[in-house]
Sequence to fold (473 residues):
Amino acid sequence: MFDSLSDRLGQVFEKLRGRGALTELDVRAAMREVRIALLEADVALSVVKDFIDQVTARAIGAEVIRSVTPGQQVVKIVNDALVELLGGDAEGLNLAVTPPAVVMLVGLQGSGKTTTTGKLGKFLTERQGKKVLLASLDVARPAAQEQLRVLGEQTGVATLPIVAGQTPVQIAERAKTAARLQGFDVVLLDTAGRLGVDAALMAEMAAIATATSPQEILLVVDALTGQDAVNVANAFKAEVPLTGVILTRMDGDARGGAALSMRAVTQRPIKFAATGEKLDALEAFDPQRVAGRILGMGDIVGLVERAAANVEQADAERLAAKLAKGQFDFEDLRSQLKQMKAMGGLGALVGMIPGMGAAKKAMDSGAVDEKLLGRMEAVILSMTLKERAKPELLTAKRKIRIAKGSGTTVQDVNKVIKMQLEMANAMKKLRKMGGMKGMAKMIGAMGGGGGLADMAGMLGAKLPPAAGKFNKR
Ligand SMILES: Nc1nc2c(ncn2[C@@H]2O[C@H](COP(=O)(O)OP(=O)(O)O)[C@@H](O)[C@H]2O)c(=O)[nH]1
Ligand SMILES: [Mg+2]
Fold:
């Protein structure tokens, strides 16, 4: 799987790995090679372009973490971008409905639908303890229904008895009724395919979907066909509400173009990968693992992750020391914003501070735009280090410079300043009350109003409307 792509990328990163320092030129040269490797892997051009742009920007902008080399860090950045490209978190089947859940498999003839239906039946039975019923709706090919019956026999999964002369819709309805009456959890519908995407095939699928309202409609496509697989997926998506993709013949796919383009181009997750003709050759598709296989550098990725965790730890300790002194400057605010972004919730500090429940709720409810956090970070990044440590330096003139530098407005800069002030004031209050020990008292004193609660309000209610004022970056 992905052997040739893996080899190519391996060569690129081999050159970077040991280097003590990397210039922007080094990064750009490496990215040119990654670009060629992806194009040779038959990844869609637009996908390659976005990927390279993103990785280049991140690699050039990245602060190198202590105790790893820049080359190692670039590997990690590419790894993370690959994971995102492949879909981020693994997405299983959505079967959490009143049984039976209907899962329909669609695709072109020869893509591997029937084999995959058999494999999926076995997978759900053995790995998830589901009671599964298989049904073939393929009345176009004479032996198709028999093929599925045999697969069911081999895997020990029940198949719907074959009744000659029924239409696909009739079979589908019979399968669903039988499943309901006999207590099956899942019905897998194997459908007919054609050599190309055509109107009759699409109409048949739509009719089956209407009759059985499936929880999942999975497109089965041959990974070996590369970008064609992506085009087929787009064509099917236009006709039926596809919920995901199963890539077959991944065992023979050295290039990986279909896997890498599918998610970005079709906006549909790859849910499974079929890796052979045997009936257990089906894997849940996990972007992290697949990216790991493509890069083959799990050791480096792990190393950088551990180093980053250590830095976060050190940051947290530095912050705790400052807090104990009742200080809170823009650097502290920035590290909080970074954490909020990274964790998709409020950072360690915020978790420690009373009155922040509202802010947390605002974050959780999505009222705080993640991009907004990024733009606030940009404001701070446009300050000099001195300004970050000494907020009182920020004169009107400096604010204008910062707004320009960060592509925002002076009002936006003022908002960030206000937030820093609120936090700094809260820290002072906290110190007056006896540092961390006074925390409990403070909870009572604040009672959800003033101080940090204002920041909560700012995050939740006042900032989002201002978001429009930030220029798109
Ligand atoms: N190597 C390999 N062959 C596969 C895979 N999935 C299916 N096949 C083969 O592809 C051929 C067509 O499969 P079939 O399930 O009948 O396709 P359908 O027309 O879409 O139902 C069969 O010979 C399968 O054994 C796979 O993941 N890897
Ligand atoms: Mg078939």
Q: What stands out?
A: The longest strand covers residues 216-222.
